[in-house]
């Protein structure tokens, strides 16, 4: 019966089960087992306290049927009667004198779900011993995707040997960390040999990233093709993209990042530290020598305009990305004299463009002539010009113009040149359009 339902509906059904309902052996055996058999994986949100209080027959059920699951979401969260004060937990044999859960309760989950492919683990302990979850003899060799998150104070992975952490996860290809501080874990010798791992995707959000991690990644993950560093460590943001080794500052060199396909780069410096920003911009040029398919670049820095223009940043980005299919620029830098020039002569594969630069200008006619396969464009600039109709029709399908002061002539030339265009969206309202020409 359940196999005849759309998968979206079954997903909704599965997500509605609470921890209490999971503890109900009768309901689990009748409904969840059918979903297990149909999906071969399931999105399970279960509190660790649930595993701790399972009865013997329920434990037997999970051990007998847990092999069917492919996705598990564990949540470790303290109950707080008042802010900052933990609520007393009932006395059980699984609690120590301080009322803390033993780590064995988490390891039990590995027995219940031995073939888990994807694990998400959220917790609110400041220094929860994450590494013990994957210590030797207890690591999940089946795990390919792992997401760790802390929704309280910034969490940590108190593991002095980060290399050993990955040895316990030999098949991990996707690692995403949110509010996890791994800065304290990188205590290895930079000359120490490492065992290559299979990681292909690395994402670090809301946590400090030491420069040594960049060097570690370049040697540890030869198959890495997508990396996202969105950190809160603004003063050392440039160290994410450059590192100091034997007195020499360089970028991730060698063969390791030649296959990098996507980059999400966010450079922020609220303190006006021009040196670090300048180092980051210089290393962007080396990053862009990779055959990127998608680039998302956010600049939010308070430095002098001359640094940006001297770097030639705007002209170098597309010139060095011959395989670029998507470009997303969000520039909130307060330049002394707003100036914007984007040369796409060497980006013939560009299909999606999103630019937000309130002080920028662009010659859209020249822009389209150098991007023949562009399909979608979102432009939030100061001025857009389009003086003449293109000689050859362009395949642009949609364009959104935000905050621009444009003329009716520009709109006419866009419509006449882009014969396949389906959507033209203008924000704010049309009365902002000048018809003087």
UniProtKB/TrEMBL annotation:
Domain F-box: 1-44
CDD domains in alphabetical order: F-box_SF (cd09917)
InterPro entries from the UniProt entry: F-box-like_dom_sf, F-box_dom, LRR_dom_sf
Top-level division of the source organism's lineage: Eukaryota
A Pfam family annotated for this UniProt entry: F-box
Protein name: F-box domain-containing protein
Organism: Phycomyces blakesleeanus
């Amino acid at each position: 019966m359940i196999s005849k339902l759309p998968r979206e509906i079954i997903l909704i059904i599965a997500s509605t089960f609470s921890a209490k309902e999971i503890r109900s052996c009768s309901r689990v055996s009748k409904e969840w087992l059918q979903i297990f058999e149909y999906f071969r994986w399931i999105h399970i949100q279960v509190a660790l306290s649930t595993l701790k209080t399972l009865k013997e027959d329920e434990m037997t059920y999970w051990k007998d049927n847990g092999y069917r699951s492919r996705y598990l979401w564990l949540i470790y969260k303290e109950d707080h009667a008042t802010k900052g004060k933990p609520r007393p937990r009932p006395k059980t044999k699984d609690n120590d004198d301080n009322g803390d859960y033993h780590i064995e309760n988490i390891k039990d989950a590995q027995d219940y779900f031995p073939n888990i492919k994807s694990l998400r683990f959220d917790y609110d302990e400041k220094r929860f011993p994450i590494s013990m979850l994957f210590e030797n003899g207890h690591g999940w060799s089946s795990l390919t995707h792992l997401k760790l998150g802390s929704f309280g104070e910034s969490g940590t992975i108190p593991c002095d040997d980060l290399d050993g952490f990955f040895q316990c996860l030999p098949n991990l290809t996707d690692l995403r960390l949110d509010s996890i501080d791994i800065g304290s874990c990188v205590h290895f010798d930079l000359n120490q040999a490492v065992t290559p791992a299979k990681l292909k995707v690395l994402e670090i959000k809301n946590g400090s990233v030491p420069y040594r991690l960049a060097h570690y990644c370049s040697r540890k993950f030869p198959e890495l093709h997508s990396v996202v560093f969105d950190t809160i460590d603004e003063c050392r943001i440039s160290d994410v993209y450059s590192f100091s080794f034997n007195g020499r500052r360089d970028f991730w060199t060698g063969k390791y990042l030649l296959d990098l396909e996507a980059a999400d780069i966010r450079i922020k410096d609220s303190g006006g530290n021009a040196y670090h920003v300048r180092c980051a911009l210089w290393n962007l040029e080396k990053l862009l020598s990779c055959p990127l398919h998608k680039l998302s670049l956010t600049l939010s820095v308070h430095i002098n305009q001359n640094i940006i223009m001297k770097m030639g940043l705007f002209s170098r980005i597309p010139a060095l990305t011959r395989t670029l299919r998507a470009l997303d620029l969000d520039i909130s830098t307060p330049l002394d004299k707003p100036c914007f020039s984007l040369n796409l002569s060497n980006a013939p594969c560009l299909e999606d463009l999103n630019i937000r630069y309130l002080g920028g200008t662009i010659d859209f006619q020249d822009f389209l002539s150098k991007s023949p396969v562009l399909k979608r464009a979102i432009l939030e600039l100061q001025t857009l010009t389009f003086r003449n109709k293109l000689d050859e029709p362009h395949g642009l399908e949609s364009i959104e113009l935000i905050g621009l002061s444009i003329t009716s002539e520009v709109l006419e030339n866009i419509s006449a040149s882009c014969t396949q265009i389906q959507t033209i969206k203008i924000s704010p309202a049309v009365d902002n359009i000048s018809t003087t020409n």
